């Protein structure tokens, strides 16, 4: 397994992986995680250096990201996988 920074060519695979991971929870209703991830990617808090993928045999099999955020008391971090 190789863990590396996400590249633009990984976005579709990460979205598909996210959809597959959360689909059973929401079926038959639409799930929201993949859309949330799309919104995070275009937010100013998205940190490409902290968006990682796990790759096995050339296939993305995992993802991890940490966008920056803010709370009432100051900056904060969100961790996703």
Query: CATH superfamily, called what?
Result: Gcn5-related N-acetyltransferase (GNAT)
Uncertain stretches: none
Major beta sheet summary = 3 strands, antiparallel
Adjacency order of strands in the biggest sheet: 1-2-3
Shape descriptor reads: globular
Order of helices and strands: EHHEEEE
Give the overall pLDDT as a whole number: 85
Give me the count of strands.
Answer: 5
* Portion of residues within helices: 25-40%
Q: What would CATH call the class?
A: Alpha Beta
> How big a fraction of the residues is strand?
25-35%
The N- to C-terminal Cα distance equals: 16 Å
Task: Give the C-alpha Rg.
Answer: 13 Å
Structural class: alpha+beta
CATH architect. name: 3-Layer(aba) Sandwich
What's the total helix number? Answer: 2
| Tally of discrete structural domains | 1
InterPro entries: Acyl_CoA_acyltransferase
Layout of SSEs?
Layout: E1 2-5, H1 11-26, H2 33-41, E2 51-56, E3 59-65, E4 68-71, E5 74-77
Antiparallel strand pairs: 1-2, 2-3, 4-5
Helix pairs in contact: 1-2
How is this structure best described in words?
The protein has helices at 11-26, 33-41, and strands at residues 2-5, 51-56, 59-65, 68-71, 74-77. The strands form two sheets. Strands 1-2-3 form a three-stranded antiparallel beta sheet. Strands 4-5 form a two-stranded antiparallel ribbon. The chain contains two helices and five strands. With 81 residues, it is α+β, with helices and mostly antiparallel strands. It has one domain: Gcn5-related N-acetyltransferase (GNAT) (Aminopeptidase), CATH 3.40.630. Helices cover 31% and strands 31% of the residues. InterPro entries: Acyl_CoA_acyltransferase.
């Amino acid at each position: 397994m190789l863990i590396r920074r996400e590249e633009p060519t990984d976005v579709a695979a990460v979205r598909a992986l996210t959809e597959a991971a959360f689909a059973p929870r929401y079926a038959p209703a639409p799930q929201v995680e993949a859309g949330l991830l799309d919104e995070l990617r275009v937010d100013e808090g998205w940190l490409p250096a902290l968006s990682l993928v796990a790759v096995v045999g050339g296939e993305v099999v995992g993802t991890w990201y940490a966008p920056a955020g803010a709370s009432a008391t100051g900056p904060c971090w969100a961790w996703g996988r």
